[in-house]
Design a protein that fits this description.
Layout (H helix, E strand, L loop, with lengths): L1 H38 L9 E3 L8 E4 L20 E3 L6 E8 L1 H4 L9 H12 L4 E6 L7 H12 L5 E5 L21 H10 L3 H17 L11 H4 L11 H23 L4 E4 L21 H13 L3 H14 L8 H13 L3 E3 L1 H7 L19 H18 L14 H7 L4 H14 L14 H4 L5 H11 L5 H14 L3 H14 L4 H13 L3 H14 L3 H13 L3 H18 L3 H17 L3 H13 L24 H10 L4 H14 L3 H13 L5 H12 L3 H13 L3 H14 L6 H9 L7
Helix pairs in contact: 3-13, 4-8, 8-11, 9-10, 15-17, 18-19, 19-20, 20-21, 20-22, 21-22, 22-23, 23-24, 24-25, 26-27, 27-28, 28-29, 29-30, 30-31, 30-32, 31-32
């Protein structure tokens, strides 16, 4: 009996064992298949953020350019912004992620006109001691379903804040209730799909199934034609307050609620923006029959009220017409009301972009004055959008108490001096005209488009048009081509503009900074050239950038900084095996600098090295005069010369022209000359302008004396002492040192 029982137990054990193997075997093969597919690099990493694919950017993550494939099965996946951020956030860092769709992506313009690019620059200028990272995660044609999938990934990357501008795509964006781009209306299945999307075996299965479905899909003469805006729409009429309308509204409300709760639970502040639409200059895309629900009728009533001068009635009717429009490419005001309620309930920072746009529009009627078509800001609108974001972020105090008064600039300064060119403006214009060639801006069966009828009339015009005729073209290459063309033809000012546009399109490419800085140096803008070069070496160090920095520091007579820059250039030259003539040129410059700084050991080493190369040289020690002021930036040169002309005869006129220069170029040169005038007038404001000039003149003894006196006049004893120490370091024998010591000792500081 015992033996029989033992046999039964063994049988049961083996039975369980084989069953377990039978259950686990399919999983083993799935895992094996996954490993094989990854080994052979099949498929795509679908995470929102991935390691940068360039070795020299190994310290950075980037927004995954292929993440759109996760949300688009039936249409081409849209690409992202190419934004990057450090794997390890700096201790002084402030990191904010932006979430949204084509409005945040800057459509119809190239990436240099995205509001996020403007916001990044403004925040960095306002808080120069912070390392500001603005990461724009937007892609075209997504909605709150995608953003809900984003938020958990974003929170894993140590954000200091999240900013959301979304809602216009709620019905027709990927997985929307009226979209052709969908897989299931069931939230659980969607979540499962998102979870599985990163597995290569799932991608293989999806690709296989989609391939079969394409074979059986009925041909439709209009399916493959037109913009994504046209093709993605399944339900062209979603009536106001209808069942599908209600589902779309609930979808937005539920997803936004989940996003805000997820952020709040993780301690991440959220900036939530309301939405703007073109209400005045855009007829409803569609119409519903009926006296009370006719969008077209309401729009006509609005225009009639406006013609009578009744803007208040017109405004109300325009918004009603927009909300009644059954073709839902513009968010209804119900979505804005949800945004207001959610912001209050979840203690989010509300950004009132709509109010900003209304205040900037005659009669509060937003139209073509700020929008390119139905919802996307034009160039003026992009700067207004960025200003609304910037103002609220500063007001929140999350970055710091207040911006740095010496470096902060007005919104008008950025609007007047931002880096975009005619090429960018034309690309935006042509994209909008092409968009308007298709439904819903025209009849559904319209076949004649802007691209079919347009004839180019010039060089830049033709380049801009290639964005439509060759959709795969990279806009960066067009700017680079133009910049190189202008540079080859000695039109350095035009070349510089194209390279500076490249800097904004892709602010992580050292090469673009170097090209722009090289032009700026030749155009006498030392300050901006230095700023670009320092950004260049932040991403990739090159001998070219360090060499130019050495030249600028030499002009400023900061010999030690110049030596450091040239020595860094020399190390990179040796490492990269660069042309010997370039190396010899750097050695000669270092030889002169070692002479000036009396560094005999390094001087002899370089002398020996140059002698071995057969270099005949005799470089006597020279006395270099401080001549930074000889370099007048090209973009202010005519007005600056007027200021100099009036300096001795009409000081107020001189001051006026210098203030005009500041609106274009807030450089040390202009601030220095304004400071000199105020110094002569014994105006205490001199300190502000001298402090702004410090970067360019901190090796000039005469400037340091006046800056010290300006601090004394303003009762700033500690700062005056620091400047005096700097003066002694620059020129220990300067005649005013003893007098300044006495004046500083006499300062009495009032105490409360």
């Amino acid at each position: 009996m015992i033996q029989k029982s033992s046999n039964i137990n063994n049988y049961n054990f083996k039975n369980v064992y084989f069953r377990l193997i039978a259950i686990l075997l399919p999983f083993f093969f799935l895992v094996l298949m996954e490993v094989i597919l990854r080994f052979f690099s099949y498929g795509t990493d679908m995470h929102l953020f991935v390691k940068h694919n360039h070795e020299k950017y190994k310290d950075y993550y980037m927004v995954n350019p292929f993440v759109g494939e996760k949300y688009f099965n039936n249409f081409e996946a849209t690409t992202g912004t190419n934004d990057i951020f450090l794997k390890k956030k700096p201790e002084n860092g402030f990191r904010i992620f932006l979430m949204g769709s084509s409005t945040l992506y800057g459509f119809p313009y190239p990436r240099n006109l995205m509001a996020s690019r403007i916001l990044q620059e403004r925040l960095q200028d306002a808080y120069p001691k912070k390392d500001i990272e603005v990461i724009n995660t937007s892609i075209t044609a997504i909605n709150s379903i995608t953003l809900k999938d984003y938020i958990k990934q974003i929170i894993d990357y140590d954000p200091d804040a999240v900013l959301i501008y979304a809602g216009h795509n709620e019905f027709y964006g990927a997985f929307g209730v009226g979209s052709n781009e969908t897989m299931s209306k069931n939230q659980f299945l969607r979540t499962l799909h998102f979870s599985f999307s990163n597995f290569r075996i799932y991608q293989l299965m999806k690709s296989f199934i989609n391939g079969i479905l394409q074979q059986f899909k009925k041909s439709d003469s209009t399916d493959g034609k037109g913009t994504l805006m046209k093709r993605i729409v399944k339900d062209k009429d979603i009536s106001y307050k209808s069942e599908k309308y209600r589902l779309g509204i609930e979808q937005f409300q539920n997803n936004l609620s989940d996003i805000l709760k997820e952020s709040k639970n993780s301690g991440v502040p959220v900036f939530l923006s309301d939405l703007v639409s073109n209400i005045k200059d855009l007829h409803p895309f569609g119409n519903t029959v009926g006296e009370t629900h006719s969008a077209e009728k309401k729009y006509q009533q609005a225009t009639n009220s406006l013609s009578r001068g009744d803007t208040l009635a017109a405004k109300d009717l325009f918004y009603q017409a927009k909300d009644l429009d059954p073709v839902r490419f513009r968010a209804s005001e119900e979505l804005n009301r949800i945004i207001y309620e959610m912001a209050e309930q979840n203690e989010a920072y509300l950004i009132t972009v709509k109010e900003r746009f209304e205040n900037a529009s005659k009669g509060g009627l937003i139209g073509n004055n700020l929008l390119s078509e139905h919802v996307h800001p034009n160039i003026e609108g992009e700067f207004l959008l960025a200003d609304a974001f910037y103002t609220k972020i500063v007001e929140s105090g999350l970055i710091g108490n207040s911006p740095n008064l010496l470096t902060v600039k007005t919104k008008d300064y950025y609007r007047s001096n931002w880096n975009y060119t005619t090429l960018d403006s034309l690309i935006g214009e042509y994209k909008v005209k092409q968009l308007k060639s298709y439904w819903p801006f025209t009849l559904l069966d319209n076949e004649i488009t802007f691209r079919d009828t347009f004839k180019t009339s010039g060089f830049v015009d033709s380049l801009a048009f290639t964005v439509l005729s060759t959709p795969d073209i990279v806009i960066d290459s067009l700017h680079k081509f133009l910049g190189d063309f202008y540079a080859d033809n000695n039109q350095l000012d035009l070349a510089c503009k194209e390279y500076e546009a490249l800097v904004r399109i892709n602010p992580y490419r050292s090469d673009y900074y170097n090209r722009a800085a090289n032009c700026l140096l030749k155009l006498n803008d030392l300050y901006k050239a230095e700023k670009y070069l320092k950004k260049s070496v932040k991403y990739i160090e090159t001998h070219f950038a360090h060499s130019m920095l050495g030249e600028i520091e030499f002009i400023k007579r900061d010999y030690h900084s110049s030596i450091n820059a040239y020595e860094s250039a020399l190390e990179l030259i040796d490492k990269d095996n660069v042309n010997k003539e370039i190396r010899k040129d750097i050695l000669i410059k270092l030889y002169k600098l070692y002479q000036l700084t009396k560094n005999s050991e390094n001087l002899n080493n370089i002398k020996d090295e140059l002698s071995k190369s057969g270099q005949e040289f005799d470089f006597p020690i020279q006395s270099y005069k401080f001549d930074y002021s000889k370099y007048i930036p090209y973009d202010i040169e005519p007005i600056f010369q007027k200021a100099l002309y009036y300096h001795n005869s009409d000081i107020d006129s001189s001051l006026y022209y210098l203030s005009v220069c500041l609106k274009t170029n807030d450089c040390p040169l202009v601030n220095y000359f304004i400071g000199n005038i105020l110094y002569e007038k014994h105006d205490k404001r001199v300190l502000f302008f001298y402090n702004k000039a410090y970067n360019g003149y901190h090796q000039n003894p005469g400037f340091l004396v006046r800056l010290c006196i300006a601090n004394i006049l303003n009762k700033k004893k500690s700062q005056a002492k620091d400047i005096l120490d700097k003066l002694i370091k620059v020129d220990p024998s300067y005649q005013d040192v003893a007098r300044l010591k006495v004046l500083i000792d006499k300062i009495t500081i009032k105490r409360n």
